[in-house]
Design goal:
Blueprint: H1 2-17, H2 21-43, H3 47-59
């Protein structure tokens, strides 16, 4: 089983590495849209509300930079 997972991981990495930078950006944006759609469907909310939840979760627990905080 570990061999199958490793093979799939390597194939996925190789496919991603073969993409140009603009293609990688589009892929990342599509994955983010997919996450928001899945969350919206699972919670029965609209996609914008799901995006707000994901944004808030991304920020939760992060520490402000001392540089940004002025000191």
């Amino acid at each position: 089983m570990d061999g199958v997972a490793r093979t799939l991981r390597h194939e996925s990495l190789a496919a991603t590495r073969s993409l140009s930078t603009p293609e990688r950006i589009l892929l990342a944006l599509r994955l983010g849209d997919s996450d928001a759609s899945l969350l919206a469907g699972a919670r029965g909310i609209d996609v914008e509300a799901a995006r707000r939840i994901l944004r808030a979760q991304r920020q939760a627990g992060r520490t402000r930079s001392r540089c940004a905080a002025g000191g």
